[in-house]
Amino acid sequence: xxxxxxxxxxxxxxxxxxxxxxxxxxxxxxxxxxxxxxxxxxxxxxxxxxxxxxxxxxxxxxxxxxxxxxxxxxxxxxxxxxxxxxxxxxxxxxxxxxxxxxxxxxxxxxxxxxxxxxxxxxxxxxxxxxxxxxxxxxxxxxxxxxxxxxxxxxxxxxxxxxxxxxxxxxxxxxxxxxxxxxxxxxxxxxxxxxxxxxxxxxxxxxxxxxxxxxxxxxxxxxxxxxxxxxxxxxxxxxxxxxxxxxxxxxxxxxxxxxxxxxxxxxxxxxxxxxxxxxxxxxxxxxxxxxxxxxxxxxxxxxxxxxxxxxxxxxxxxxxxxxxxxxxxxxxxxxxxxxxxxxxxxxxxxxxxxxxxxxxxxxxxxxxxxxxxxxxxxxxxxxxxxxxxxxxxxxxxxxxxxxxxxxxxxxxxxxxxxxxxxxxxxxxxxxxxxxxxxxxxxxxxxxxxxxxxxxxxxxxxxxxxxxxxxxxxxxxxxxxxxxxxxxxxxxx
Length: 491
Ligand code: ATP
Hints:
With 491 residues, the protein is α+β, with helices and mostly antiparallel strands. The protein contains 16 helices and 23 strands.
């Protein structure tokens, strides 16, 4: 990461705190590593992103329905899903500093330093070599790669490394108050992904909502991972939120559905007006234990191109495993006629395409792409500056700010009338204090797309000044058109 980008990233983090978007969790006790709280504007933005995803998945696709499963699940779920045995990352410890690294992060960090020196080709070759070794679980080969390139610990500066070991990322806790001789009897996990809540409910949902394949089940909710290298603000958290959709298809059609969802999901991102060149696909070489095909949608954060969403072709792995462990059939009867045989397709365990996006990562994406420091040329030849968040209007925490020019002459009464007309429909903000310019700047900093000023001319002709956040242009429109203007921009 170049120093410039590092500065921008630090400025975004500082801005997020100063303007009530994101706080470190339990800050008064010096915080809890990789756990964050969302403030008044942050929780609105987060909710709006969640709602935008939910609407696009469930309301705009008649064949996708939602559920809201519990965080705790029967522990056998995680045996069946493979998480107890396989949900781990290869780690390496520096013997001098005792600092633990995820192997891929250590190598990627080293590649960042190569890129900063302009040695991009060497960096690409190193990443390719790493991916091949990870795909084969070749830990000796990975350790050799680390030594060969003299990758050192950022704390001790030495290359004195332990062997590489696997580290499980699931949090465990105890369930219920019953003492047992075997402590394992009471163990439950905090779910590391929301997907399994969907799989174990597959037949409940299919039957009660009378769904026919192909169909999907969507869910948003908290997930927990004991990430070893938890850094980079809300990019990698120990408690985070996912928005996942599992799409159940007829075996043999998974290849085409994978392509469909790969494209659909990128289109969803583009629908927010974020420049397409900021996105790219990254096809996986090392596949997760369940995957047939997988790719990430990556976004160019100030810290480089990073995963924001995964699209995975999960075969019939999960349902087959749950059938095996629960001894309950997970079959679907497909009455459609197979043209090859002239008979119904009959019973089968569906294949699954998954789309999985981190809500907090999407939040960070929106914040990073919205954050701008601008210099403004003034009429008298001098310059001014502002920090503005060009958050898509649909997602902005406040949609409209309403300002009476002064606190007297009946202007607040008119402003309050507009406020009560608009606030049932979208979030509005009312303010009488300070000069108008100052009020505009505060709204720019939290990304409010429209500000309206009520002045003395409003009393005469019923018009108001609308000020547009991105262009800073102002126009006079009838007050009774304000509601429509905002609704057109956010629906
Ligand atoms: P990574 O390689 O970054 O650890 P992953 O490939 O393990 O991510 P998935 O299991 O595919 O991630 O999870 C789907 C999505 O959930 C990711 O694309 C990401 O947006 C989000 N996500 C995963 N882990 C975290 C985390 N620790 N903090 C925030 N978001 C996360």
